[in-house]
Design brief:
single chain, about 240 residues, alpha/beta, Rossmann fold, 7-stranded mixed beta sheet, 9 helices, about 25% strand, globular, binds S-adenosylmethionine
Amino acid sequence: MQQPEEKKKFVRDKFASISGRYDLLNSLLSMRIDRYWRWRTTRLLREFPAGPVLDLCAGTLPLSLELARQAKNRQVLAVDFCEDMLRAGVRALPDDDRRQRIFPVCGDGEEIPAPDNTFWGCTVAFGVRNLARTQQGLNEMYRVLQPTGKLLILEFSRPTNPVVKPVYNFYLNQVLPRIAGLISGDKEAYDYLASSIAEFYEPRELLAMLEKAGFGETRRLPLTFGIVSIYIGVK
Ligand SMILES: C[S@@+](CC[C@H](N)C(=O)[O-])C[C@H]1O[C@@H](n2cnc3c(N)ncnc32)[C@H](O)[C@@H]1O
């Protein structure tokens, strides 16, 4: 069991090492379904078409871009503690108005660099699983949201369908680390992906943690046989 500071260093180093290939691998390994997952997540914020939104664990900015694409008057603060991931995202930003509305900031999701009651929405795509202190991160997300603001967590979950489950587990544990290792040069990073999914909280545990942080109206929306889920909470 790693200590929080050890886990942070490990996670930051792993993402730094794959930052240049992260987007390519994401599309390849998910067969581009990840784009649909981010689209669905972002649609759940359509009642807040203007004003600031926080994209936490923003990485190479794929969800920040979708957030800015779906609402032309939205500003996105994109926070990640791995500078290399943010830099890779900034280098690949398309040449359109979203450049002026996405603000990348290097910072820790467990100590969000923003004042209380700031954002209408907070999104975290495939980031919560990587936090060293999950409850501390959720408490911070609650703090920086405005009252009635919405939290959306997009995260891997474990499919329970008896046909899908063994196929998915084989893909995740055997196929994915090998392909990803070849392309990224860091197989360990994708072994970590598989083990972090296997070890992550059950959906009901994560929802209980959202409630502990103060969120109401909590619910889970499983997508694609429950391979991923969107967890929702309102401040
Ligand atoms: C799997 S990537 C997800 C990137 C992006 N959200 C996406 O949809 O592809 C996870 C990101 O979480 C970041 N991360 C992990 N722990 C963090 C923390 N405590 N504070 C800020 N960022 C963190 C990593 O640096 C990495 O860029």
